[in-house]
Amino acid sequence: MSSFTPFKDKMEQAGVSEAAIKSFERNYAILCEGSSTDISEDSIEPVEKLPELAEISRDGEEFDPVLLAQTVVIKLNGGLGTSMGLQKAKSLLEVKEGATFLDIIVDQISYLRESTGAQVKFLLMNSFSTSEDTLEHLSQYAERGLAAKDEVELHQNQIPKIHAESLEPVVFPENPSLEWCPPGHGDLYPAIAGSGWLERLLADGVKYAFVSNSDNLGAVLDPGILRYFAESGKPFLMEATRRTEADKKGGHLAIRKSDQQMLLREVAQCPEGDIAEFQNVEKHQYFNTNSLWINLESLKAELESQGGVLPLPVIINKKTVDPRNKGSQAVYQLETAMGAAIECFKGADAICVPRSRFAPVKTTADLFALRSDAYETTEDGRIALLAERGGKPPVVSLSDEYKLVDSLEGLGVPSLKGADKLSLSGPVRFADAVEILGSVSIKNESEETSWVANGRYQDEEVVL
């Protein structure tokens, strides 16, 4: 195996924490060993049934202020949204009526504090790319106690890219910043330990962490889940939901046959020959919403028993050092997923939550749907799928000219309350009163922009 010393020296010089260095060292050793990181279909069995949120909740249940005071809400906020043409934190993207993701999250935390009297703690896991923009935006909320860097920021680590041939730290003098990459959201564990936040939270009497993505506005603290998690004594709880065709590429839950341990399988860990089974949403029914509940005392104990490193499955990505230049040096980037920690805790579990708790934005099509009337703003600050849709979001498909956020400006948003699927191709604009019902395809094959006239469109193909 190549020496780890050059990596350690480079990371120490950059001020990377010991916890992050140890985690990277473990993952680097796995890369050097050359063993497969795949999870084959014949090594697992599907999860047949999970407890439903409705089964563990109580009618009219309200928050227990004592439990709330023992809880921290952590939002993953490291993404730039570059795939949508953004050069700033994706959480600063406008979602509804002048409000960004971050504004809505702040309102959610403020609502909790004001409605219960409990000063629930709040952290944003920012990356090197999102920290400055995010903290600047938060400065307007100083009076709410949600602006001070040392009170709200958990900083994500950065790790070296690895030369694909020599397995040494890559050197790229043209742009040294490209010698580094994010380690995936599995970095939550070394980040919270290495930053001192784990000890600090425990010292403040905080026992429970609720972690979710900043682009998932349906993920808010829930009184029933919090009570259930606290009473259960479980070390780790994942929120999962039913897979639909729109989710078939997302990681799913499974049971490892060898020891009956629940695990998470991502598509990057699936052998090519098993992709069809991976995407079988009837067989593998549950996928990870990336909303997790973690007992911080259990996390500390597990880290101590494992020498400071959670043994998360490693995802090995082969890329180029300059992602915009496919001819540049081939490198390995090592990532871990925070949900994969479900296999690191004995007694870890999952529950099935309704689709209203899962409304992420990964593409402009997701944003287009979220801005529509198929989603509503709830009293507690969530952007949630309408209850009448029975947990099924409208599936929106946009052609390539709508890949960037700017392309949505002036497009208009039709009513999608009754839509199953909307496919849009070519330059179009929606009039103010367009209603989509069922499955509708709208095409404009010319280069001139055409308007979709006011009216109701149902189960049809519209050629403009």
Automatic annotation (TrEMBL):
SUPFAM superfamilies: Nucleotide-diphospho-sugar transferases (SSF53448), Trimeric LpxA-like enzymes (SSF51161). This is UTP--glucose-1-phosphate uridylyltransferase. Gene3D superfamilies: Hexapeptide repeat proteins (2.160.10.10), Spore Coat Polysaccharide Biosynthesis Protein SpsA, Chain A (3.90.550.10). It comes from the Bacteria. The lineage of its organism: Bacteria, Pseudomonadati, Verrucomicrobiota, Verrucomicrobiia, Verrucomicrobiales. Keywords: Nucleotidyltransferase, Transferase. Belongs to the UDPGP type 1 family. It comes from Rubritalea tangerina. GO terms for molecular function: nucleotidyltransferase activity. Pfam families: UDPGP.
